[in-house]
Amino acid sequence: MKDTTEILIQSGDGGEGLVAFSKSKKAIGGDGGRGGDIYLVGDRNVFDLSKIHNIKEFRAENGFNGEKNRRTGKQGEGIEIHVPLITKVFNEDGSEIITISKANHKVRILAGGNGGYGNFSHRDQGWDGRYLRTRGEMGERKRIKLELNLKADIVFLGYPNAGKSSVVNALSNAKYRVAPYEFTTLEPQLAVMDYYTLMDLPGIIEDTHKGKGLGSNFVKHTKYSKLLVHCISLENEDLMKTYQSTREEFKNLSEYLYSLPELVLFTKADIYSLDKLEEVTKKIKEEFPDSIVISVYRKEDLERLKEELKKRLSSTS
C-alpha cells in the first residue's frame, strides 16, 4: 500500500492567436484556446496512491491555435487525477493546499493558460491592429505531495504477536498474512465487518514513538477512527504490565489515539483448557471488568465480540 507520493503536474499552455484575412482584407484570425486544467477528484473506488506513484508526472493538453473566420481554438483537454478519500495535498514547502475527503469532490489544482488573441480581437486598434496577435499564456507547473489518511471505524493495535491480524481475519473473512513472528503486519490493512471498516495496524514496541520497530507513520491513519481495540495475548505473563506499557506508548504516539474509546481484547484463549480458561478469565475480569477474552477458533467468542463492537460503535456515533 502506498500512502504518500510526490508528483509533478503541469497545466496546458494557451494556444496562439491567428493572423488571417478575408478576401476583402478584413481581420478574421481567431483567438487561441485555453490550456487544459489539472484536477484532483475524490474516488471511493481508489484505495491507495500506488497507481499515481507509478506515473509520477501529469501534463494537461495545450490549447489549440486560433483558426480563420474568427474561430477560437479548441481548449486543451484537462486531466483528472483520482485519489482516495481523505487525501491531503501539500506544496513543496509543506504548506497544505486542501484535503480531498468526499466522493466526487473535484478540485482544480492548476489552471491552464489563457489563449492568445488573434487579429480579429485587435481590429479596434486601427490599421496596425490588423497584423497583431498575442501568444498564449504558459501553463503552470508545480510539484505536489499527496498523503493518504485511511479511514476506519475500528483500529486494532497491540504488541507484535498480539493476535490482531487473526482477529481481523476472523471477523471479516479477510486473508491477511498471519505468522508466529514479529511485525507480520508491515503496513495498515483494511477489512469490512458488516458495513463497519476495520484496520489492522503494525505492532508497536517500546519506543515506537521514537522510530523503533516499524516506526510511527501509521498513527496518522487513526485520526478518523471511533474505537480502539487494544489486543493483548494471553501468552504474556503479566497482563497488567503489558497493558500499561502499551497504553504509555499510545500516549507518546498520539493524544488522539490515547483518548479513543478502548476495548481491551485478550486473545489466544485457546492456549488454555476450558476449565483453566474459566479461572483465568475470572482473574482478568477483576482487573479489566469491561474486557473480552476470545479465541478466534470459537465461533461463539467471535459473535460475542462482534456484538460488543457494534454496541460500542453505536454509542460513539
From TrEMBL:
All residue ranges annotated as the OBG-type G domain in the record: 152-314
GO MF assignments: GTP binding; GTPase activity; magnesium ion binding
Domain of life: Bacteria
Gene3D superfamilies associated with the record: GTP1/OBG domain, P-loop containing nucleotide triphosphate hydrolases
Keyword field: GTP-binding, Magnesium, Nucleotide-binding
Keyword Magnesium in annotation: yes
KW Ribonucleoprotein (keyword) present: no
Record-annotated Obg domain positions: 1-151
InterPro entries: G_OBG (IPR031167), GTP-bd (IPR006073), GTP-bd_Obg/CgtA (IPR014100), GTP1_OBG_dom (IPR006169), GTP1_OBG_dom_sf (IPR036726), OBG_GTPase (IPR045086), P-loop_NTPase (IPR027417)
Residues spanning the membrane: none
Pfam families: GTP1_OBG, MMR_HSR1
Gene Ontology biological process terms from the UniProt entry: ribosome biogenesis
Family: Belongs to the TRAFAC class OBG-HflX-like GTPase superfamily. OBG GTPase family.
The protein, known as: GTPase ObgE
